[in-house]
Amino acid sequence: MALNWLAAIPWAVLIENAPRILDASKKLFKRTQAMPPPPPAEIEINPAAGTEARLATLEMVVEENRRELRELHTRQQESARLIEELAQQNAQLTLRLRRQYRQLLVTGVVLLGVLLYLALR
Known about the structure:
- Keywords: Coiled coil, Membrane, Transmembrane, Transmembrane helix.
- With about 120 residues, the chain is mainly α.
- About 80% of the residues lie in helices and about 0% in strands.
- The protein has helices spanning about 5, 10-35, 50-120.
- The longest helix is centred in the C-terminal third of the chain and has 70 residues, at about 50-120.
- It is rod-shaped and about 105 Å long.
């Protein structure tokens, strides 16, 4: 009984889409694994320095944080696009699976009818 649903899976479609899914997941995995977490922010402000130097240091730190935030936002958008693409592929596979399941049911009913006809003839 457990193997019946395996027959209804559109294996050709699944195999066709598998390389794209695999490549996208590998890229995402490599990107996330290759990047170490950022170190804690250490702001070195010389108390003996003047107000201008301290402000310049803080402005530099703020600009670095903005740049990192933009990079994170870009990565988040890429991940969202990837998830959306995978969700669409999953929806297509599910739809095709339902169609093939219905076709299998119709074929089974027709086959049963033919067999009954031949048996009662």
